[in-house]
Specification:
Among the domains are: 104 residues; 209 residues, no CATH class. It is built from 23 helices and 16 strands. Strand 6 and strand 7 form a beta hairpin.
Length: 551
Amino acid sequence: MTQVATSAALPDDVDKLDLTFNGREYKGERHGDKFFIRVRPEGGSYGEAQQIVLQTGSHTLKILWLESGQARTLQQFPFAYIVPEKIWAPVTQTFLIPPQLKEYYSLGAWNGACMDCHVTQGQSRFVEGNRWDSQVAEFGIACEACHSEGREHIEANRNPIRRFKLHLTTKTDPTITNPSRLKGPDSALDCGQCHSVWAFNNMPDKIDFNRHGSGFRPGAHDLAQRFVVQPNAPDHSEQKDFIRQSEPDFFSNRFWGDGMIRVTGREFNGVQASPCFRGGEFSCISCHEMHLDSPGQTSIPKWASTAQLKPKMDSDAACLQCHQTMATNITAHTHHSADSSGSRCYNCHMPRTTFGLLHAIRSHQVSSPTVKESIDYGRPNACNLCHLDQTLAWTAEKLGTWYHQPVPQFTPDDQNIAAAVQWIVKGDAGQRALIAFGMGWGSAQQTAGRDWLYPYLIYSLNDPYAAVRFDAWKSLQTLPGFSDFSFTYTAPHDYIREMSARAYEKWLREVRDPSLIYRSETGLDADGRFQQDTFQRLRSERDDKPIILAE
């Protein structure tokens, strides 16, 4: 997750960059095997070249770090490279960040935050001001991050007789940690040391972490100087009260109201809050593997593209490995045909309600869908993420009939307007991003139809949050007639308005089927145009509170 900035690691065009953002121009250069950035303020001259020294990220997003002239303190290059699209975009527009925040990550952000998880045994070593004297054991996530320190293991196993004896027994080697042989909670903590929202126990522990690095070692039962934050749990109440007082938006920018995680990279919070976790066996490596050592694992690209899952773990096999009795009559449990998306365990019990890296991501908290979660906390429930054209009242009636869930009182909108329509028009930025992404999901399109999605995705190309615009564009490209639709989601507003107007005209004149009649629950009239009174009212009710969902 962190690499030295070499030609093999960096995007191919980094030495040819010529970008402008927030009143500054950035130009890339190459001198031998080193890469540099020059910056020119508006109306000024280019300053001295700053060397690109590190890169974080690999599969989805690449972020570059520059020397700052202040010892080991790094400065973030304000553009990120979006790998699948092969485009550069301002870093603040590659996460869900309010448009008014042009520069979210300050000088020293890598030293003070990113390196906590993007290296092995980092020591941030704050000096003063924005100066750091950071050190790391290794860049990236190396063996000792998961298996603990290796000195004793290496020394002991220089003896081939010892190795042979261990090979002939079923005993574990006590000189090294193997997460697959740990109890579920301890094994998952290996991942959770980084993949969680955590906080320090107290100020001395924070200082110790800063000076000497993490005291956690794989195989331990807790994070030593830190604890995993579950906002609604009774533990660490004093520390959590301090967080609420010192950073009022800390929890709302990371969790839904009931404590479910809503930002990527924090999967352990979801795993830990799952009922399966309480059994003591369930952990991250119940479904994922960090090495390509399972029979049936075919290639590195497939492994990487399926989130480093074990073979078949992107299917119901992930859940049925424990819930074996469900397999004999899955439809009795799901009330959907066995081959439909409604009978896939993940879709109902781990829906995409987490956001990050411009994607909606599965929550990693095993739960059952309810309408209450949507009414009380605003979190899209699994049913309406698939049945995009249905109302909350429709969902409650089904869940009440099938699973005897109580049916709550509904507003007229919840009885008459599809939940997804409400979320994408009047929801907060996080809700809008989830639905913009979800409208590109093939299973949802098959279930809810796709002809009525065009107006909402085209409308969302104008969203004030860049991340919502990106997801609306990518989902629009999944619809007939728009697969080659070109759109620069980071462009100025005049361009965005013009392109969305062109998209609407294209849909209205060339793609729309005039013979179709659109259901009123979709918020469209019979011809597929917005019901103007309803749409304008919902738009006026949009939740515009600032939302930050960023690593």
